[in-house]
Inverse folding.
């Protein structure tokens, strides 16, 4: 296939579908200056919606990814040398099956025994990963690189450290009589397999030799880090970073705790891990946005937070962060299929996607039928001169005519006939005093023009693409993928016509690509956890907002593409709160703090559908003016009969039960013993 | 490994070939589907129905709202009456779909304990979460002389089939953690339900080169949905090599099992299996998983378990030209000899 026809965005996920060896080509370092805490001493909780690049950043701590960078001829490891002095190890809570311990019965004191097993399994897994990483580094990494990382290239030192660990009280049970790192890994693997046999019901009980040597959470890891430094395997300033991936899954499961399965017990152990005072090991925990890390640990004292959504939104540091990331990702993806564009980074998106239309152009393109009476509705009760003026104006500027209709509707009862007696040359809504009024209402006017014309709103150009991506690099890649696909499918088969990539891609191809991307993102809702219910919830919201925006002929609520709820009201309904949180975490909703017009409403939050869903639901993208102020009971009424929420009484009972359980589990002193 | 002869065919025919067996114990499911009782009805007709034990899988109480719940409960009660009319002496285990694995395994062991030495497991309406461990436990037990699995296709599937899938997770008894990077195959049974591929490949070193799709043929039904499923895989992993689509019979367990052994080069490749395809293909994956475990080869079989099944999952049952239910039977063990082993 011609390189230009190969879709550079065919594989969407940078961490999946692309092998570690190819990772250096695709990794974008743009966010690195803002996520330095990840590569420095101290525990870090990394928050981020799906698609914000969390996995990509954590992959930099992975030993095989570092080795891949070192082997790569073109792309150097993207961290500066002073941030390279670490060794990484980790566990994925889902893939490791550690959460499966909740599926088994431990008899009497089941919770504390399952917590003990969870801790020991995590220790075993991570220690094996750590020793394996050191072994691979010593054998596969260039000595100069090891020196930079503060890691000894000597097998002897490592084996000496292993012997000390094996003789110790803390690690002895895990390592048995190991004398070399290979023997240590074999011993840890054997212990892991015994646990796996228990998880897979091949044995009925955990053997007594494991119970008698069970380790407390993090203890063997801290001790191992100290011994590795003492034996010069690691230099004194080389950090041990342990990534605990998929913590978000544990936090999600915690919501569904029952008397049988108590995931909160495992969260307590992780909380204990990061609130421990010793600092030999630093932990990195990935969690979803909005999740409250409950327990004894405290931000600043015990961990720092890195919030990727906040960083990309520009609320912290740099407003242009997402566009910079998108440009860099775009350029790297092109290079990967052999398209080395020499355009400066800040020009590349504009070159390939062109400028987005202004509102006037957008309105014209959505008004294809050229039938003013279909779009501009004149009431019989209005003064006679208004109709001809608006209809005449529609031929010139359909946007101005539509705004004029709304202005008349807003003022028809307020103004005198004289005040309403305007001429085509002095249109009140086009006055300078009304410039903000106009600006706020242009998007809703375009939406109403498109709806009346039976057309879709048009989206194309690099600004539209960035805005529809909603700070989500995965969605940006999806839009690019679909535009590319749409362009390739438009080429004549076998002709050379399409051998040059157009700059920019034709508007129509972009429009089709964006529409398809929107539809695909919508279809992804049902594939998320409890996705069918979430999809119905999002559909109710999207359809309600569309009806509201289309039906608001006076354009009194141009910001009605979002909703606002007060925090107090929201916390009274855990079921709806969970749905909103799930929608945000999975990238289908966006949530922002909201300062309501009236102080009595109290602190509030507002939610919008993710911008990529706007083409699907045909609602406006910009967040102008005030969202719809709702009470939780109103929202619940919207959802009734749609199989989104249980009956009020059932949901309240369950919500209260969940909160009580969770608090007891997390703060019960006895469980820390 | 040479291909072994593993008898399969209609239940009536296969039972007649194992003429020394005068009665078969059955473990099945009382479900909303008509086909869930086809096997016992057929065994009764041919006079070989022995002890019957059923799982009556109830919708989870914790899972609310469930728009199918009320109708499901009433259909289950009706099906239970039908089951009792066919086999007056039955054991019925009421169990929640999403119960803890420890409870599920214990229920499976109890049903197996009730069964005599010749056993049929009817998987027609049994969720994978139940039949995978049940088949594994039956084959690990030395108590059974003959083990058969039966399956009846419905006349028509409903839409939707199920809702609210849980995240990708290993099926009970089929977890693995020691799959070697760069030495793994991801083998996906092509089906109808949406796949959460991102979760499956997360953390694993999969690329387009080591993904294989088992595409069911020999059925005209649902092929559009099957291709839509393939499109979803392409969407996320990129185009796969043409050879990665392996066309397999939707009803030939033995053949699919042999294909799996071949794809993994007799277990040289470790495998992650995603059984989204027709039940007989999933059964082959289950048997392959047991084979791998017996060989000491790491294998993981996972699924995104729906939390809610439709009360109209299917309608009717496919019939033979004689108007009888078309109950397929697959021998797994005959006269004490396991047919799917190394």
């Amino acid at each position: 296939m011609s390189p230009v026809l190969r879709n550079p965005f065919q594989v969407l996920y940078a961490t999946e579908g692309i092998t570690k060896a190819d990772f250096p080509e695709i990794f974008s370092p743009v966010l690195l200056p803002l996520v330095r805490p990840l590569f420095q001493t101290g525990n870090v909780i990394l928050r981020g919606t799906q698609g914000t690049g969390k996995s990509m950043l954590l992959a930099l701590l992975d030993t095989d990814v570092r080795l891949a960078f070192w082997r790569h001829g073109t792309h150097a490891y993207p961290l500066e040398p002073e941030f390279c002095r670490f060794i990484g190890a980790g566990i994925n809570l889902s893939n490791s099956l550690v959460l499966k311990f909740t599926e088994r019965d431990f008899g009497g004191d089941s919770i504390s025994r399952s917590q003990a097993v969870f801790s020991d399994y995590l220790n075993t897994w991570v220690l094996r990963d750590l020793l394996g990483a050191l072994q691979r580094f010593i054998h596969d990494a260039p000595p100069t690189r090891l020196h930079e990382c503060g890691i000894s290239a000597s097998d002897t030192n490592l084996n000496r450290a292993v012997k000390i660990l094996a003789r110790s009280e803390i690690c002895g049970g895990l390592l048995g009589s190991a004398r070399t790192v290979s023997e240590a890994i074999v011993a840890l693997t054997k212990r892991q397999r015994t646990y796996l046999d228990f998880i897979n019901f091949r044995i009925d009980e955990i053997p007594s030799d494991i119970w008698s040597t069970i380790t407390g959470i993090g203890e063997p890891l801290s001790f191992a880090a100290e011994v590795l430094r003492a034996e010069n395997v690691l230099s004194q300033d080389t950090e041990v970073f342990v990534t605990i991936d998929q913590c978000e899954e544990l936090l999600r499961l915690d919501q569904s705790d029952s008397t049988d399965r108590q995931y909160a017990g495992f969260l307590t152990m992780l909380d204990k891990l990061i609130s421990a005072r010793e600092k030999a090991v630093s932990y990195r925990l990935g969690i979803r946005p909005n999740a409250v890390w409950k327990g004894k640990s405290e931000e600043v004292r015990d961990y720092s937070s890195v919030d990727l959504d906040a960083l990309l939104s520009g609320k912290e540091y740099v407003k242009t962060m997402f566009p910079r990331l998108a440009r860099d990702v775009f350029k790297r993806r092109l290079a990967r299929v052999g398209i080395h564009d020499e355009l400066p980074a800040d020009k590349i998106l504009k070159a390939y996607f062109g400028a987005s239309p202004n509102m006037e152009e957008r309105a014209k393109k959505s008004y294809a039928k050229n039938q003013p009476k279909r779009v501009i509705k004149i009431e019989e009760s209005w003064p006679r001169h208004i109709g001809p003026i608006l209809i005449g104006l529609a031929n010139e500027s359909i946007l101005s005519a539509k705004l004029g209709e709304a202005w008349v509707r807003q003022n028809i009862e307020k103004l005198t006939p004289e005040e309403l007696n305007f001429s085509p040359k002095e249109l009140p809504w086009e006055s300078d005093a009304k410039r903000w009024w106009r600006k706020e209402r242009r998007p809703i006017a375009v939406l109403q023009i498109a709806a009346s014309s039976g057309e879709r709103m048009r989206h194309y150009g690099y600004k539209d693409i960035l805005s529809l991506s909603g700070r989500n690099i995965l969605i940006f890649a999806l839009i690019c993928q679909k535009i590319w696909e749409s362009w390739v499918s438009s080429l004549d088969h076998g002709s050379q016509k399409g051998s040059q990539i157009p700059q920019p891609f034709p508007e129509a191809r972009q429009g089709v690509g964006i529409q398809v991307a929107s539809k695909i993102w919508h279809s992804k809702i049902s594939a998320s956890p409890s996705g069918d219910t979430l999809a119905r919830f999002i559909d109710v919201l999207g359809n309600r907002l569309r009806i509201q925006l289309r039906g608001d002929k006076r354009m009194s609520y141009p910001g009605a593409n979002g909703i606002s709820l007060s925090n107090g009201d929201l916390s009274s309904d855990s079921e709806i709160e969970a749905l909103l949180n799930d929608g945000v975490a999975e990238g289908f909703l966006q949530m922002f703090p909201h300062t309501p017009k009236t102080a009595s409403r109290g602190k509030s939050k507002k939610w919008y559908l993710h911008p990529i869903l706007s083409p699907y639901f045909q609602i406006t993208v910009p967040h102008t003016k005030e969202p719809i102020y709702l009470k939780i009971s109103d929202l619940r009424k919207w959802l009734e009969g749609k199989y989104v929420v249980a009956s009020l009484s059932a949901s309240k009972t369950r919500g209260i039960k969940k909160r009580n359980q969770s608090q007891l589990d997390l703060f019960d002193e006895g469980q820390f013993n | 490994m040479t291909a072994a002869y593993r008898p399969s065919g209609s239940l009536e025919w296969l039972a007649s070939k194992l003429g020394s067996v005068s009665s078969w114990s059955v473990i099945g499911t009382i479900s909303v589907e008509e086909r869930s009782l086809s096997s016992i009805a057929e065994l009764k007709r041919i006079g070989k129905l022995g002890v019957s034990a059923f799982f009556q899988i109830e919708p989870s109480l914790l899972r609310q709202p469930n728009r199918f719940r009320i109708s499901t409960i009433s259909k289950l009660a009706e099906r239970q009456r039908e089951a009792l009319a066919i086999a007056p002496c039955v054991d019925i285990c009421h169990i929640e779909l999403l119960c803890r694995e420890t409870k599920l395994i214990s229920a499976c062991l109890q049903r197996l304990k009730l069964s005599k030495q010749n056993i049929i497991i009817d998987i027609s309406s049994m969720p994978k979460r139940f039949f995978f461990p049940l088949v594994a436990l039956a084959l690990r037990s030395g108590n059974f002389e003959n083990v058969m699995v039966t399956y009846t296709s419905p006349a028509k599937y409903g839409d939707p089939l199920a809702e609210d899938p849980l995240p990708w997770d290993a099926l009970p008894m089929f977890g693995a953690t020691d799959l070697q990077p760069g030495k793994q195959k991801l083998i996906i049974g092509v089906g109808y339900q949406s796949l959460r591929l991102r979760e499956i490949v997360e953390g694993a070193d999969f690329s387009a080169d080591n993904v294989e799709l088992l595409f069911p043929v020999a059925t005209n039904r649902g092929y559009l949905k099957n291709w839509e499923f393939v499109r979803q895989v392409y969407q996320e992993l990129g185009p796969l090599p043409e050879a990665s689509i392996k066309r397999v019979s939707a009803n030939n367990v033995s053949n699919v099992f042999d294909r799996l052994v071949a794809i993994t080069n007799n277990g040289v490749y470790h495998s992650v299996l995603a059984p989204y395809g027709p039940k007989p293909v999933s059964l082959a994956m289950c048997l392959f998983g047991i084979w791998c475990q017996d060989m000491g080869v790491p294998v993981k079989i996972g699924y995104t378990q729906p939390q809610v099944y439709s009360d109209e999952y299917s309608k009717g049952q496919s019939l033979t030209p004689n108007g009888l239910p078309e109950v397929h039977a697959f021998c797994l063990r005959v006269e004490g000899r396991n047919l799917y082993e190394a």
Observations:
- Chain A touches chain B through 53 residues (CB under 8 Å).
- The longest strand of chain A covers residues 86-92.
- Chain A has 29 helices and nine strands.
- Confidence is low (pLDDT under 50) at residues 649-673 of chain A.
